[in-house]
Design goal:
It is built from 4 helices and 4 strands, in the order αβαβαββα. It is α+β, with helices and mostly antiparallel strands.
């Protein structure tokens, strides 16, 4: 009966390794906004489009209004909004602004590599 936990652990390690190699890791994202300002609305719309197109079924997105939950903004040391935090997979990344530069976001999320010669 001791074999089952070891098998489960080995299976989980294998599946995690497979996800890392195949690029199918689950993403945990937090978007901090300040009310329903135009830039907040644009950032929400943009990250949802990016997630639905590039991370379908493998992301968790939490939108946090710092006016409603200021303690979460302080905890994450948010000093400007909108800001997107990529919590997982590591490393942590922060993107400040309305997320309109899709290419920059995709590269930062490790979803799309820069083309040779691009300066973005």
């Amino acid at each position: 009966m001791n074999d089952k936990p070891e098998i489960k652990t080995s299976t989980e390690a294998f599946e995690k390794g497979l996800k890392e190699v195949s690029g199918d890791e689950d993403y945990v994202l937090r978007l901090f906004v300040s009310g329903m300002t135009p830039s907040s609305i644009k950032a929400i719309r943009r990250i949802k489009e990016i997630c639905e197109k590039h991370l379908e079924g493998r992301y968790e997105l939490e939108v946090i209004d710092i006016y409603q939950q200021p303690e979460l903004g302080r905890k994450e040391q948010v000093v400007a909004v909108p800001v997107l935090l990529k919590k997982l997979p590591v490393p942590l990344r922060k993107f400040i602004g309305d997320l309109s530069d899709t290419e920059r976001i995709l590269v930062g999320l490790n979803l799309h590599s820069k083309k040779a010669g691009d300066k973005k």
